[in-house]
Amino acid sequence: MSTSIEDKLYTLTFKPDKESHLVPNQDLCRQCADKPCLNFCPAHVYSWEGDHLAVAFEGCVECGACRIGCPYHSIAWRYPRGGFGVMYKFG
Q: Can you tell me the distance from the alpha carbon of 17 to that of 15, in angstroms, rounded to the nearest whole number?
């Protein structure tokens, strides 16, 4: 039986901070024609809304794909503060 990425993400718990640990440079994002960030994030954190890149950082799995996937390096990425972010379940 194959398990989808959505099924696996469902098993995670998140404790979101008040501030995002993912901060896109909106000027660079507006110039980007392909918008690969809408596709490379396994948690679907990024969406294009009107004239800006929206970030649902609360569901970030902290994989770092956006650090390397954006050809313009326009997403400032850091780990969430201690005690916040994704909480992986083991067992």
A: 7
